Amino acid sequence: MKSALPELPAPIIEDAVHTALLEDLGRAGDITTQATIPAAAVADAAIVARKPGVLAGLGLARAAFARMSSDMAFESASADGDKLAAGETVACISGPAGAILSAERVALNFLGHLSGVATATRAFADAIADTHARITCTRKTTPGLRALEKYAVRCGGGSNHRFGLDDAILIKDNHIAVAGGVAEAVARARAFAGHTIKIEIEVDTLEQLREALEAAPDIVMLDNMKPEMLREAVAITKGRVVLEASGTVTLDSVAAIAETGVDYISSGWITHSAPVLDLGLDIDVTGPGG
């Protein structure tokens, strides 16, 4: 069953757009537009996909234009999660020409980056569509943009891993080393966690996996294992816990990983290295001063 797309809460959108506009406008505002564009000029504009991809971030683009002028009209021709063809119109904007120009870069920055994340995620998800595995993101996100990038992952057909250090327990190799072993680390986590908190532990050998299964975590992360070892790990586990494969996952390797029978495949690449989707704004000045 296909999960519904998430919605970004309005305060998250508003805060992100406000911060980005303040950064771009600086101390004196858009002095290029102030110097060259008559205040009475109005314009129509269209956001157009230059390359094919998957759309994400439309709400942020809408908010960027609206924040620059209350007289702005924004009509979307697509929705987040939609596949875009090269040359396809994403949205049409009309209003004060100066406000459109001042908001343009912030709107396109959000759209290009988040659509790039969604497009990369969709490529991974499509590559494993014939398996039961799902692509999930990591905490390898751009500082300040995590909620937005994780939203884009969902738009691309992926799922979200934990959002931060406070919403799940993930015991990694360094935690195990300091805690004194797999069993001790899981036991300490179980004693600490409330009944709603999931416990995941990272292992990189089958011996550690067997030890982890005895300790009964909710999820085991199989780190940097080759497909042959992953298949063996799946056979050993027999469905007792959720299995997540992780470590240098690429578009070339993801299908082979999924075919081993793991439940989730985590990728940092889809958020930290996804290429920006090329979208542009085409403008037509229609009012005074045009």
Plain-language structure description:
The structure is a single chain. This protein is of the alpha/beta class and 290 residues long. It has helices at residues 10-25, 31-36, 58-68, 97-127, 146-155, 173-179, 182-192, 206-215, 227-237, 254-258, 269-272; strands at 42-49, 53-54, 73-76, 83-84, 89-96, 134-136, 169-171, 199-203, 219-223, 242-246, 264-266, 279-285. Strands 6-11-10-9-8-7 form a six-stranded parallel beta sheet. Strands 3-5-1-12 form a four-stranded antiparallel beta sheet, covered by helices on one side. A two-stranded antiparallel sheet has the order 2-4. Helix 9 links the parallel strand 9 and strand 10 (242-246). Helix 8 (206-215) runs parallel beside helix 9. The N and C termini lie far apart (51 Å). 41% of the residues are buried.
Show the helix and strand layout.
Elements: H1 10-25, H2 31-36, E1 42-49, E2 53-54, H3 58-68, E3 73-76, E4 83-84, E5 89-96, H4 97-127, E6 134-136, H5 146-155, E7 169-171, H6 173-179, H7 182-192, E8 199-203, H8 206-215, E9 219-223, H9 227-237, E10 242-246, H10 254-258, E11 264-266, H11 269-272, E12 279-285
Parallel strand pairs: 6-11, 7-8, 8-9, 9-10, 10-11
Antiparallel strand pairs: 1-5, 1-12, 2-4, 3-5
